[in-house]
User: Fold these one by one.
Assistant:
Number 1:
Amino acid sequence: DAKTTQPTSMDCAEGRAANLPCNHSTISGNEYVYWYRQIHSQGPQYIIHGLKNNETNEMASLIITEDRKSSTLILPHATLRDTAVYYCIVRVGQYNYGQNFVFGPGTRLSVLP
Amino acid sequence: GAVVSQHPSRVICKSGTSVKIECRSLDFQATTMFWYRQFPKQSLMLMATSNEGSKATYEQGVEKDKFLINHASLTLSTLTVTSAHPEDSSFYICSAADRGGSTEAFFGQGTRLTVV
């Protein structure tokens, strides 16, 4: 699976949009971009994933550049409960039969009141 | 959505004793389950992959005789930390793959193990 690079930490004001970048310059054509987050002392929580089109769900939006070498996770209206470590993961295949997720250090997002 | 339940959420044990952690898939069948370990301020590190009915595959550096994994059914995998030592204190997290196929991995809520 391709390697990802994320900023170590970011701050965001409550109520504003949080934009979390991720670089994955060596991504292959069959690799998807997944985002998970981990709130302190909990297991990772799935947020969103995509291949090449932008995606949106009730939690967030995922913007993938045309060359697929980078992406941005957008939390439209950050709340204090969004404070967590956010992991950008690139992996082969959309279905995870027997395939684990490889976690990097992630981005520690702090939402400030 | 699919749920993975992990038990216990916290456990404190004495050095030299063994601790069992359970990971259950509540509403789906999990052919494969993964066990991760997370030390403070670090990311999740895969320890082993367990497949129902067969021996687990351990990552390099993880002692299979110390971390016993059993995946006897499609809904339950257990991790037993044998002869625990203070350096085994960590956050242990399981993850399950839906046999029916899914787009995301499902994670348990984690177990905080403290060995005193």
Number 2:
Amino acid sequence: GAGVSQSPRYKVAKRGQDVALRCDPISGHVSLFWYQQALGQGPEFLTYFQNEAQLDKSGLPSDRFFAERPEGSVSTLKIQRTQQEDSAVYLCASSFGPSRNSNQPQHFGDGTRLSIL
Amino acid sequence: GQNIDQPTEMTATEGAIVQINCTYQTSGFNGLFWYQQHAGEAPTFLSYNVLDGLEEKGRFSSFLSRSKGYSYLLLKELQMKDSASYLCAVRENLSNTGKLIFGQGTTLQVKP
């Protein structure tokens, strides 16, 4: 596709339920990032993939959060036993190459707005 | 530690010029990005600075001083559609990921 696609756009779940959020990056992009954005705040890093390898998961808030990118394209962020503090917008971003020294920007999707009741 | 500061809100008039400042203190530095984000939408890339100086791109310009830990985004000939949140983000270089550390964002309101 032309841009980063995320689904669903909105997700409402009851506390304790598991949720799965999907990200379709721009075709051919090697790097994929997940960020969490609370209302009125900037995005905060969760995890990073280079192709299928998860190279950094230092931002995941707890072991209830799990991300995968098994074939190096689509990625899924899973949250188990959701809690109210998990309510936020979850943004996915991709970039063309390994991102450390590149001037290639990260391209963001519209995000999934997660509400935990 | 990581700290990026931006003003929370700014207001400006259509047709005018506005400067949004960003100061940062990060464990490492490997470039600074500015993004625009309309409510409920994706952040979109505006500019990138890695060396000191001014980068100009149409109505938008961005400046960087690495020694001062300071950047600004300059928006000229403001239009109503420029009302949005503007995010300053530093790419740190301690990890091998290129992850971005964001400020809280500056909400700009453009008035007629």
Number 3:
Amino acid sequence: AQSVTQLDSQVPVFEEAPVELRCNYSSSVSVYLFWYVQYPNQGLQLLLKYLSGSTLVKGINGFEAEFNKSQTSFHLRKPSVHISDTAEYFCAVSARPGGGTSYGKLTFGQGTILTVHP
Amino acid sequence: DTEVTQTPKHLVMGMTNKKSLKCEQHMGHRAMYWYKQKAKKPPELMFVYSYEKLSINESVPSRFSPECPNSSLLNLHLHALQPEDSALYLCASSPGLAGASTQYFGPGTRLTVL
């Protein structure tokens, strides 16, 4: 089984400031890692994902995330945020092949609401 | 076309009504999902279809009945719902069931049960 902990439920930040949204996970099997964004009254959209290779992953809209296996973390960063980045961000994991009954399921964290102020 | 469409956008129903939610994708994806999302919570997986066969049922009450008539279409039939079933119902699809696949989400149907 997997679990995902997003350490901050809300993150307020001023426009053009840097931001980091924190995510830690726990799993008995190897996992893939994802960040999704949900704008108000919309579905979720993939920002980026880590499958293998370089631990620094770049996504859409200037976001990036770093996979740290020893700390079981996958924190999301953006060097300069815009008002339009105001949304809820979900970290998620899914089991790699061999993940048993967890295979094919996305497990989400509780979400972090990012609010960008002018 | 990278879009997942859902109809209706909003639905209000009584506890004795029968209604259906519809989801469609034309990306050739072979896995489709239903999620339930309560306010200020993450999506909770309900059902997964892979190649039009039910692959995962997360112990969902029988008042929710999924159906996958073909590879592009996913329905969720609702009957005798409870007020606590009020939520945003999200449909998603992915190229395959593999864990590495990106899931593409529709905008959701906001359901209110009176």
